[in-house]
Amino acid sequence: MQRREFSKKVTAAFGSLPLWTVAGTDTKQTLIKPPALKMGDRVGLIAPGSPFGDKQIIRAQEHARSLGLEPVFGAHIRAAKGYLAGTDQERLQDLHEMFFDPEIKAVWCIRGGYGCTRLLPLIDYERIRSNPKPLIGYSDITALHIALHKHAGLLTFHGPVASSDPSSYTLAYLRKALFSGQPYVIEMAEENAQLSANRQEFRWKVWKSGTARGQLIGGNLSLLAALSGSPYAASFAGKIVYIEDIGEKPYRIDRLITQLKQSSDLEQAAAILFGVFNDCEAKPGERSLTLQETLEDHFSAYSQPVAYGFSFGHIDHQFTLPVGIEAEVNLDTRTIHILESPVA
Protein backbone atom coordinates (compact mmCIF):
# COMPACT_ATOMS: atom_id res chain seq x y z
CA MET A 1 0.00 0.00 0.00
CA GLN A 2 1.37 3.43 -0.89
CA ARG A 3 2.18 5.77 1.98
CA ARG A 4 -0.03 8.57 0.63
CA GLU A 5 -3.04 6.26 0.19
CA PHE A 6 -2.63 4.87 3.69
CA SER A 7 -2.32 8.41 5.10
CA LYS A 8 -5.63 9.37 3.50
CA LYS A 9 -7.37 6.29 4.88
CA VAL A 10 -6.10 6.89 8.42
CA THR A 11 -7.05 10.57 8.27
CA ALA A 12 -10.53 9.68 7.07
CA ALA A 13 -10.95 7.06 9.77
CA PHE A 14 -9.73 9.23 12.63
CA GLY A 15 -10.88 12.64 11.45
CA SER A 16 -9.31 15.31 13.59
CA LEU A 17 -7.62 12.70 15.81
CA PRO A 18 -9.57 13.15 19.06
CA LEU A 19 -8.17 13.05 22.54
CA TRP A 20 -7.69 9.44 23.68
CA THR A 21 -8.38 9.02 27.38
CA VAL A 22 -6.07 7.01 29.62
CA ALA A 23 -8.47 7.05 32.55
CA GLY A 24 -8.93 3.56 33.93
CA THR A 25 -6.04 2.11 31.92
CA ASP A 26 -4.66 -1.04 33.54
CA THR A 27 -1.07 -0.21 34.42
CA LYS A 28 -0.43 -3.84 35.53
CA GLN A 29 -1.36 -5.43 32.21
CA THR A 30 0.82 -8.14 30.71
CA LEU A 31 3.92 -6.89 28.93
CA ILE A 32 3.52 -7.20 25.16
CA LYS A 33 6.69 -8.06 23.24
CA PRO A 34 6.83 -6.90 19.61
CA PRO A 35 7.69 -9.40 16.87
CA ALA A 36 11.38 -9.80 16.06
CA LEU A 37 12.63 -7.97 13.00
CA LYS A 38 14.07 -9.71 9.97
CA MET A 39 16.09 -8.54 6.99
CA GLY A 40 14.05 -6.61 4.47
CA ASP A 41 11.41 -5.42 6.96
CA ARG A 42 10.08 -1.90 6.53
CA VAL A 43 10.85 0.55 9.34
CA GLY A 44 8.87 3.75 9.84
CA LEU A 45 10.99 6.85 10.43
CA ILE A 46 9.17 9.59 12.34
CA ALA A 47 9.83 12.88 14.13
CA PRO A 48 7.69 13.04 17.31
CA GLY A 49 9.77 15.84 18.83
CA SER A 50 11.98 18.49 17.24
CA PRO A 51 12.63 19.21 13.54
CA PHE A 52 15.87 18.57 11.66
CA GLY A 53 17.58 19.07 8.32
CA ASP A 54 18.25 17.09 5.16
CA LYS A 55 21.52 15.64 6.46
CA GLN A 56 19.74 13.95 9.36
CA ILE A 57 17.08 12.56 7.03
CA ILE A 58 19.79 11.10 4.78
CA ARG A 59 21.64 9.61 7.76
CA ALA A 60 18.44 8.05 9.10
CA GLN A 61 17.79 6.41 5.76
CA GLU A 62 21.35 5.10 5.53
CA HIS A 63 21.33 3.72 9.08
CA ALA A 64 18.05 1.87 8.51
CA ARG A 65 19.51 0.24 5.41
CA SER A 66 22.71 -0.65 7.25
CA LEU A 67 20.54 -2.85 9.48
CA GLY A 68 18.97 -4.50 6.45
CA LEU A 69 15.72 -2.58 6.85
CA GLU A 70 13.77 -0.60 4.26
CA PRO A 71 13.11 2.98 5.46
CA VAL A 72 9.67 4.54 5.10
CA PHE A 73 9.28 8.19 6.11
CA GLY A 74 6.27 9.60 7.90
CA ALA A 75 4.01 11.82 5.83
CA HIS A 76 5.00 14.92 7.82
CA ILE A 77 8.70 14.20 8.16
CA ARG A 78 9.68 17.65 6.87
CA ALA A 79 7.04 19.56 8.78
CA ALA A 80 8.16 22.25 11.22
CA LYS A 81 6.44 24.51 13.72
CA GLY A 82 9.12 26.49 15.49
CA TYR A 83 10.91 24.08 17.84
CA LEU A 84 8.49 21.26 16.93
CA ALA A 85 8.57 18.89 13.94
CA GLY A 86 5.09 19.97 12.90
CA THR A 87 1.84 20.38 14.80
CA ASP A 88 0.84 17.94 17.51
CA GLN A 89 -1.75 16.48 15.13
CA GLU A 90 0.84 15.96 12.37
CA ARG A 91 3.36 14.28 14.65
CA LEU A 92 0.64 12.16 16.25
CA GLN A 93 -0.70 11.12 12.86
CA ASP A 94 2.74 9.88 11.78
CA LEU A 95 3.13 7.93 15.04
CA HIS A 96 -0.32 6.34 14.67
CA GLU A 97 0.09 5.54 10.98
CA MET A 98 3.37 3.72 11.53
CA PHE A 99 1.89 1.60 14.30
CA PHE A 100 -1.37 0.89 12.47
CA ASP A 101 0.13 0.09 9.05
CA PRO A 102 0.70 -3.71 8.94
CA GLU A 103 3.46 -3.26 6.37
CA ILE A 104 5.59 -1.32 8.87
CA LYS A 105 7.42 -3.62 11.28
CA ALA A 106 9.21 -1.08 13.52
CA VAL A 107 9.07 2.63 14.39
CA TRP A 108 12.40 4.46 14.66
CA CYS A 109 12.51 8.07 15.84
CA ILE A 110 14.89 10.23 13.80
CA ARG A 111 15.74 12.50 16.74
CA GLY A 112 14.52 13.61 20.15
CA GLY A 113 14.70 17.27 21.11
CA TYR A 114 11.37 18.38 22.54
CA GLY A 115 7.71 17.66 21.91
CA CYS A 116 6.90 14.07 22.85
CA THR A 117 5.20 14.93 26.15
CA ARG A 118 2.64 17.00 24.25
CA LEU A 119 1.47 13.86 22.45
CA LEU A 120 0.87 11.63 25.46
CA PRO A 121 -2.83 12.52 26.12
CA LEU A 122 -3.59 12.08 22.40
CA ILE A 123 -2.19 8.58 21.81
CA ASP A 124 -4.53 5.65 21.11
CA TYR A 125 -2.88 3.28 23.58
CA GLU A 126 -5.39 0.48 23.17
CA ARG A 127 -4.93 0.28 19.41
CA ILE A 128 -1.14 0.47 19.69
CA ARG A 129 -1.28 -2.41 22.17
CA SER A 130 -3.16 -4.38 19.51
CA ASN A 131 -0.45 -3.57 16.93
CA PRO A 132 2.83 -4.15 18.80
CA LYS A 133 6.09 -3.31 17.08
CA PRO A 134 9.47 -1.99 18.26
CA LEU A 135 9.71 1.73 19.02
CA ILE A 136 13.34 2.89 19.14
CA GLY A 137 14.91 6.11 20.41
CA TYR A 138 16.17 7.93 23.49
CA SER A 139 16.35 11.40 25.05
CA ASP A 140 12.92 13.05 24.51
CA ILE A 141 11.62 9.66 23.31
CA THR A 142 11.74 8.69 27.00
CA ALA A 143 8.24 10.16 27.29
CA LEU A 144 6.90 7.73 24.69
CA HIS A 145 8.71 4.76 26.25
CA ILE A 146 7.29 5.41 29.71
CA ALA A 147 3.75 6.17 28.50
CA LEU A 148 3.54 3.19 26.14
CA HIS A 149 4.91 0.89 28.83
CA LYS A 150 2.46 2.17 31.40
CA HIS A 151 -0.71 2.55 29.33
CA ALA A 152 -0.26 0.06 26.48
CA GLY A 153 1.92 -2.53 28.22
CA LEU A 154 4.24 -2.41 25.20
CA LEU A 155 7.92 -3.31 25.39
CA THR A 156 9.91 -0.58 23.59
CA PHE A 157 13.65 0.05 23.08
CA HIS A 158 15.79 2.77 24.65
CA GLY A 159 18.45 3.01 21.98
CA PRO A 160 20.00 5.27 19.35
CA VAL A 161 17.88 7.64 17.28
CA ALA A 162 17.99 7.03 13.53
CA SER A 163 19.95 10.20 12.71
CA SER A 164 22.75 9.52 15.18
CA ASP A 165 26.14 8.21 14.08
CA PRO A 166 26.11 4.72 15.60
CA SER A 167 29.36 2.86 16.18
CA SER A 168 29.79 -0.86 15.52
CA TYR A 169 29.24 -1.38 19.27
CA THR A 170 25.93 0.51 19.10
CA LEU A 171 24.72 -1.38 16.03
CA ALA A 172 25.70 -4.75 17.51
CA TYR A 173 23.50 -4.28 20.58
CA LEU A 174 20.68 -2.83 18.51
CA ARG A 175 20.71 -5.97 16.37
CA LYS A 176 20.76 -8.21 19.45
CA ALA A 177 17.74 -6.44 20.87
CA LEU A 178 15.64 -6.33 17.71
CA PHE A 179 16.62 -9.37 15.64
CA SER A 180 18.08 -12.21 17.71
CA GLY A 181 15.13 -13.35 19.81
CA GLN A 182 17.53 -14.53 22.52
CA PRO A 183 18.59 -13.40 26.01
CA TYR A 184 21.97 -11.63 25.93
CA VAL A 185 24.60 -9.97 28.09
CA ILE A 186 25.51 -6.29 27.76
CA GLU A 187 29.16 -5.42 28.38
CA MET A 188 30.46 -1.88 28.60
CA ALA A 189 32.06 -0.28 25.54
CA GLU A 190 35.85 -0.44 25.61
CA GLU A 191 35.92 2.83 23.66
CA ASN A 192 34.19 4.61 26.55
CA ALA A 193 36.68 3.16 29.04
CA GLN A 194 39.50 4.58 26.93
CA LEU A 195 37.82 8.00 26.86
CA SER A 196 37.72 8.01 30.66
CA ALA A 197 41.48 8.63 30.79
CA ASN A 198 40.95 12.21 29.61
CA ARG A 199 37.25 12.88 30.08
CA GLN A 200 35.80 12.87 33.57
CA GLU A 201 32.22 12.27 32.40
CA PHE A 202 33.21 8.78 31.19
CA ARG A 203 34.79 7.68 34.50
CA TRP A 204 33.28 4.71 36.27
CA LYS A 205 32.08 5.27 39.84
CA VAL A 206 30.37 2.80 42.19
CA TRP A 207 28.66 3.99 45.37
CA LYS A 208 27.16 0.65 46.30
CA SER A 209 28.37 -2.54 44.64
CA GLY A 210 26.51 -5.82 44.20
CA THR A 211 23.86 -7.36 41.96
CA ALA A 212 20.17 -6.68 41.50
CA ARG A 213 17.31 -8.10 39.46
CA GLY A 214 14.16 -6.42 38.18
CA GLN A 215 12.42 -4.83 35.23
CA LEU A 216 14.34 -2.18 33.30
CA ILE A 217 12.81 1.32 33.38
CA GLY A 218 14.15 4.85 33.01
CA GLY A 219 15.60 7.20 30.41
CA ASN A 220 16.43 10.87 30.27
CA LEU A 221 16.42 12.52 33.71
CA SER A 222 14.77 15.74 32.51
CA LEU A 223 11.90 13.76 30.98
CA LEU A 224 11.46 11.46 33.97
CA ALA A 225 11.18 14.56 36.16
CA ALA A 226 8.84 16.30 33.70
CA LEU A 227 6.44 13.33 33.86
CA SER A 228 6.27 13.50 37.66
CA GLY A 229 2.75 14.10 38.93
CA SER A 230 1.19 13.24 35.56
CA PRO A 231 -0.74 10.10 34.52
CA TYR A 232 2.41 9.07 32.64
CA ALA A 233 4.90 9.13 35.51
CA ALA A 234 7.10 6.05 35.86
CA SER A 235 7.05 3.68 38.82
CA PHE A 236 10.52 2.59 40.00
CA ALA A 237 9.90 0.33 43.02
CA GLY A 238 11.69 -3.00 42.68
CA LYS A 239 13.04 -2.10 39.23
CA ILE A 240 16.46 -1.49 37.71
CA VAL A 241 16.39 2.23 36.90
CA TYR A 242 18.68 3.69 34.22
CA ILE A 243 19.16 7.48 33.98
CA GLU A 244 21.09 9.82 31.67
CA ASP A 245 21.11 13.48 30.63
CA ILE A 246 23.03 16.08 28.64
CA GLY A 247 23.74 19.79 28.94
CA GLU A 248 22.45 20.20 32.51
CA LYS A 249 24.79 21.82 35.06
CA PRO A 250 25.21 20.12 38.45
CA TYR A 251 22.70 22.36 40.27
CA ARG A 252 20.09 21.51 37.64
CA ILE A 253 20.87 17.80 37.96
CA ASP A 254 20.45 18.28 41.72
CA ARG A 255 17.07 19.94 41.20
CA LEU A 256 15.83 17.24 38.80
CA ILE A 257 16.90 14.40 41.09
CA THR A 258 15.36 16.14 44.10
CA GLN A 259 12.09 16.50 42.22
CA LEU A 260 12.14 12.86 41.15
CA LYS A 261 12.92 11.61 44.66
CA GLN A 262 10.21 13.74 46.23
CA SER A 263 7.53 12.84 43.68
CA SER A 264 8.19 9.14 43.03
CA ASP A 265 9.26 5.83 44.54
CA LEU A 266 12.81 6.10 43.19
CA GLU A 267 14.27 5.30 46.61
CA GLN A 268 12.61 1.87 46.38
CA ALA A 269 14.41 0.96 43.14
CA ALA A 270 16.28 -2.36 43.03
CA ALA A 271 19.29 -0.59 41.49
CA ILE A 272 20.12 2.75 39.88
CA LEU A 273 22.38 2.88 36.82
CA PHE A 274 23.65 6.21 35.55
CA GLY A 275 24.86 6.47 31.98
CA VAL A 276 27.31 9.08 30.71
CA PHE A 277 26.11 12.63 31.44
CA ASN A 278 27.66 14.60 28.60
CA ASP A 279 28.34 18.33 29.13
CA CYS A 280 27.00 18.32 32.68
CA GLU A 281 29.90 19.93 34.55
CA ALA A 282 30.07 23.51 35.75
CA LYS A 283 32.35 25.92 33.93
CA PRO A 284 35.85 26.44 35.38
CA GLY A 285 35.75 28.95 38.23
CA GLU A 286 32.02 28.56 38.88
CA ARG A 287 30.97 27.92 42.44
CA SER A 288 29.59 24.43 42.10
CA LEU A 289 29.74 20.78 43.07
CA THR A 290 31.02 18.46 40.38
CA LEU A 291 28.57 16.11 38.70
CA GLN A 292 29.83 13.11 40.66
CA GLU A 293 29.73 15.05 43.94
CA THR A 294 26.11 15.92 43.15
CA LEU A 295 25.21 12.28 42.50
CA GLU A 296 27.17 11.12 45.54
CA ASP A 297 25.29 13.60 47.72
CA HIS A 298 22.03 11.94 46.69
CA PHE A 299 22.94 8.26 46.37
CA SER A 300 26.03 7.37 48.45
CA ALA A 301 23.85 6.29 51.38
CA TYR A 302 21.63 4.00 49.30
CA SER A 303 21.63 0.31 50.25
CA GLN A 304 20.84 -0.72 46.66
CA PRO A 305 23.50 -1.05 43.93
CA VAL A 306 24.24 2.38 42.42
CA ALA A 307 26.89 3.21 39.82
CA TYR A 308 27.78 5.84 37.22
CA GLY A 309 29.38 5.43 33.79
CA PHE A 310 27.31 2.83 31.95
CA SER A 311 27.55 2.91 28.15
CA PHE A 312 24.32 4.72 27.36
CA GLY A 313 23.31 8.35 26.99
CA HIS A 314 24.14 11.07 24.48
CA ILE A 315 27.32 9.29 23.37
CA ASP A 316 28.59 7.50 20.27
CA HIS A 317 29.01 4.06 21.85
CA GLN A 318 25.70 3.17 23.49
CA PHE A 319 23.81 -0.06 24.06
CA THR A 320 20.08 -0.62 23.64
CA LEU A 321 17.86 -1.38 26.64
CA PRO A 322 14.49 -3.14 26.23
CA VAL A 323 12.08 -1.12 28.38
CA GLY A 324 10.18 -3.34 30.81
CA ILE A 325 12.21 -6.54 30.34
CA GLU A 326 13.48 -8.59 33.27
CA ALA A 327 17.23 -8.10 33.74
CA GLU A 328 20.05 -8.55 36.23
CA VAL A 329 22.87 -6.07 36.77
CA ASN A 330 26.25 -6.96 38.24
CA LEU A 331 28.33 -3.93 39.21
CA ASP A 332 31.42 -6.05 39.92
CA THR A 333 31.57 -7.29 36.32
CA ARG A 334 29.93 -4.16 34.86
CA THR A 335 27.39 -6.25 32.98
CA ILE A 336 23.66 -6.27 32.41
CA HIS A 337 22.05 -9.65 31.72
CA ILE A 338 18.87 -9.45 29.62
CA LEU A 339 17.20 -12.55 31.05
CA GLU A 340 14.64 -13.19 28.33
CA SER A 341 14.12 -12.38 24.69
CA PRO A 342 12.80 -8.82 24.26
CA VAL A 343 10.99 -9.78 21.05
CA ALA A 344 8.38 -12.43 20.29
Task: Give a description of the structure.
By secondary structure, the protein is α/β, with parallel strands linked by helices. The protein folds into two domains: 3-165, 3-Layer(aba) Sandwich (Rossmann fold), CATH 3.40.50.10740; 184-338, LD-carboxypeptidase A C-terminal domain-like (Glucose Oxidase, domain 1, 3-Layer(bba) Sandwich). The chain contains eleven helices and 14 strands. Strands 6-14-13-8-9-10-11-7 form an eight-stranded mixed sheet, sandwiched between helices. It is globular. Residues 1-27 have low confidence and may be disordered.
Give a short overview.
This protein is of the alpha/beta class.
CATH class type of the largest domain: Alpha Beta
Elements, N to C (H/E): HEHEHEHHEHEHEHEEHEHEHEEEE
User: How is the biggest beta sheet arranged?
Assistant: 8 strands, mixed
Count of discrete structural domains: 2
Helix content: 25-40%
**CATH 4th-level superfamily of the largest domain:** Murein tetrapeptidase LD-carboxypeptidase, N-terminal domain
Number of helices: 11
| Coarse structural class | alpha/beta
* Euclidean distance between termini CA atoms: 25 Å
CATH topology of the largest domain: Rossmann fold
How many runs of DSSP E, i.e. beta strands? 14
